[in-house]
Amino acid sequence: MTKIIKITVAILICTCTSGYSQTYVGYKTDWNGNIFDGYFDPIIYSPENKLTEIFNVESYEIGHYYNRSGSKVRGLIKFKGDKILFKNGEGEFRDKIKPEEVQGFVIGVDSFFVISKYFNQNTLKDKPDYAQFISEFGDMTFAKHYHFRKMYSSGQSPIVETYLVKEKGSEFWQNFPDNKYFKEKALKYFSDIPSLKEKITSGQYEYNNILSIIKTAEYYEKYHNDEPILYDKYWQETGNIENAFFYSKIVEKKDSLWNLDYYNIEDTIKLYSATYSSFYPNIKNGIFESYYPNGYIRQEIIYEDNDPKEVKIYNQKGNLKKYYKYIETNTYGAQNKVEYISIIDSTGTNILESNNYTEINEYDQLNNTTHTNIFRKNTLVSSYRIGEDSDTIFQITDDRYNFKIKRLQKKFTNHINQYFYDEALSVNAQGFLLIHFVLDDRGNVVDYSLLNEIHPQINGLVNNFIKYYLFNKRAFRPYKKNRVKRYSEFVAPVEFSINRYYRQPVNYYHLNHLHMHMHHQRMMNNFNPPASPMGY
Q1: Alpha helices, DSSP H only, in 360-494?
Q2: What whole-number distance in Å separates Cα of residue 259 and Cα of residue 275?
Q3: How many CA atoms lie within 13 A of 112 on its CB side?
Q4: Residues 287, 288, 293, CA angle at the centre, nearest 5°?
Q5: Which member of 196, 259, 400, 533 has the lowest number of beta carbons within 10 Å of its beta carbon?
């Protein structure tokens, strides 16, 4: 016997002061099938299909340098390897500043200082040169040096990166060799950390993992000293408290698993709790929890090697509301397959247990609308709402629907490449921008909105792209429900990443690591080295 059960679940807006941490977007689904049960969490959002714009740039950034007397000079800085270019403002005359003229400089989230007496390819260099600060803990300081080749053959990068370490009391910077001697050198500095010793000895960690090794050792030190990890508004780690919007504390370390709690820098309200098995790239293994401002858990996701497996959604009183799993499927299409385990009503009853057909109404206060979700056993087969003009608008839940993302990406790239966005680049602005589209029954974009913000310049570029190429145009195929063309809606994610040769992109996580590493290498290969490199 088929029964219809109706319950009403209110999704209420919580005012968060945490900036880019938890943005209320309402009840929506992106074109991958990822579900937004009220909130967008940039720290964990990693969609497989997205529009992308990767800025491979050498642009100026807001920063400052310290002259030889220690005075701070603010302005716009561009790092060129053996020198920096400095301007007081846009359009101003630029100065070329060499290492012997300054103590160091800061651009974005990166700090550089002047070194000498360092080893590069077993050769001692004693002329002053710039090096990028990586980390400092215990009696060790770690840095990264960039050597710009005058000549290089096909397949070689014009930039040689060398990781350096200097022990307290030593005059010399030692390098980590990219050869068979790496293991011996790495164990010299990191063998006191059991998990690192095991991975280095077994060969699981090699030279290419040196940044992960250094950051793991740094976090190990922070854990024992109860020190925070700081992040800017775009969730990029920073050492400058003035630029910090968020911070995390390592609350537990067991074997190779690390438990971190995340907070807004302005208060003690917990935002997230996460379990990682490695850093840089950050790989989630275990439970990731998100919290309401009142302290109750909002969402719990179980990860295996950064892949989400199970999701639990809670109401603002901490009671379980939904529980679903992601299941693997070979079905054609971009969307994830979701199997619902339970939908809990106000009495605490799982209404999916004994019903072939379940209808649930969810009120979305953001848009002042009610979404009707229809389940057949454990599968969401339909989700719709009534629009302002009394049109029934369906969320696209059919994994066979083709969004033609590649074609859209080509248009997007052609549009973005026509413009400059130096202001956004100067403040290191990057991340995901979510676009909510509404289509009519012919596939025309009849309404849209940006659900979050990155930077006014980037927001404006995306808004102009939609107006010029998509709005009031037949940009997508009509969505059919029961073979009838219907109004529909979905969320399209757009990712903006900045790829400089001295900085990894902000989303330095496992799912994008190889993809972004490819662009990082391409950027380095296309980089024009200084005409006359100095110091070599």
Answers
A1: 405-416, 422-426, 456-465
A2: 5
A3: 29
A4: 135
A5: 400
